Model the fold of this input.
Amino acid sequence: MTNAYDIAHFLAGMMLVCSFTLLYQDRIFAVLNTFAAQAMMLSLAVAWQGYVQSSPDLFITAAMAFGLKGIVIPVALNRMIIRLGIHRDVDQVVNAGVAMFLGLGLTSLALLLVLKVTPGAASFTREGLALALAIILLGFLMMIIRRNAVTQIVGFMSLENGLILAATGARGMPLVVEVSVAFSVLIALFVFAVFVFRIRERFDSVDIEALERVRGGAR
Amino acid sequence: MPAPIQSFLAQGAQMFLVLAIAPAVTGITRRVKARLTRRRGAPILQGYRDLLKLVRKDVVLAENASWFFRSAPYLIFAFTWVAAALVPTLASGLMFNWAADVVALVALIGAARALLALAAMDAGTAFAGIGSSREMMIASLAEPATLLVALTIAFAAGTTRLPEVAQYLINQPIELRVSFALAFVALVIVALAENARIPVDNPATHLELTMVHEAMVLEYSGRHLAMIEAAGYLKLVLYISLIICLFLPFGMAPIDGGPEAWSVGLAAYLAKVSIAAVALGVWEVSIAKMRVFRVSEFLGAAFVFSFLAILLAFLSREVLR
Done:
């Protein structure tokens, strides 16, 4: 079964690479494309798990990941960006080098933590959990370091990719939960979209810096 | 044939092989670049002619150049040649097996680079100083990535000695290894930066504000320049051989291989080097040079990739244990 493991490892590793690319990519359409690529990798990983564990409901999860996160959400964000008129913006990452080092540190932390906590579990589970935790932490990091609201949304969505990867590795997330999570993410997208347009209306910008004044946290 | 003689022959053959093919490899890359931009281009053997011409010419020395400036080219050439001769190319049973260590290679290349940077500053021109400082910046980013790649390989093969790594990889079944793929990308990025190739430096320009390698060798002429040029050719072959040895060693003659195995190894090696040279040419015409200040991001990507490679290798070993 090493071959089965190798492919799962490859797909999850590629998702992690996508997470790092999301972290430092500063062109907004490239961010969306990378996010779509990560979702495609996720759907392939889930489908491979479904094939290995021979559980057909994972194929439905894979199809949902492919359709919703690989196509619908990137296209929706794409149209949002064009309507906001920020498709030429370069979202300056605050100090990309430091962000990369933080990301590497978080990834190491996630791997060491999961390997320490789950000594008895099956290899697929440990592997999936470790990489999924790393992807989740990188999603958090992306939400923290980005200043543009749209790229923060992408950070949130990539965090959710990590959650699904964790769930499929651990075998046993019921399909109902899966479907409801997927739809709550869609609803979150709508809420985000409304908020982003409101922010733009009020501040003429989707740069989060503009909110600092409201909070009173002037620098 | 007794084993010591065989390994001696293999080492000697390979030492002169890398020297013999080095100008031609750069020639192939230049030719491909020229053809792809619809120019005729110099013949592939132009590198040899250039070297001959330079050796015959007189040396013009700066007035305040010291002995160091004059001796550095020979040392640089020697360091690079030793490093290139240590990488197993056509056979893995080499005489200096014990010295062909990735860490030693990095040290040899680093020594050659330090000499070049110092010699560049010796003549006291402003351009050379800029070149040296940029070269050192690139090196400080590229060397950690190279060492991490070496560690990733050592993690899998259990050794950093190149011949043993190559043997180990030849005997493994073909597997999908994401850590090796990442390490490969990282090493390719490092090789591009180290050889002053696009997108880090443009090897075709001679007077430009953004040049790095050419800025350092601007003061050299005659046989000194020939040595430096030859070291540059050798360095390209060295990195191509290193990548081949670490990631595509198939076809290489085993330790106890006879003449047939050697000829197969030679043919495979030459084919792989030519493909790499053509690929380098295609790559160079397809992209533009980066600003100097973006180079750190480019090489930072190499560092991140090699770090991820080692993390993933660690993860899969821990999980499968």
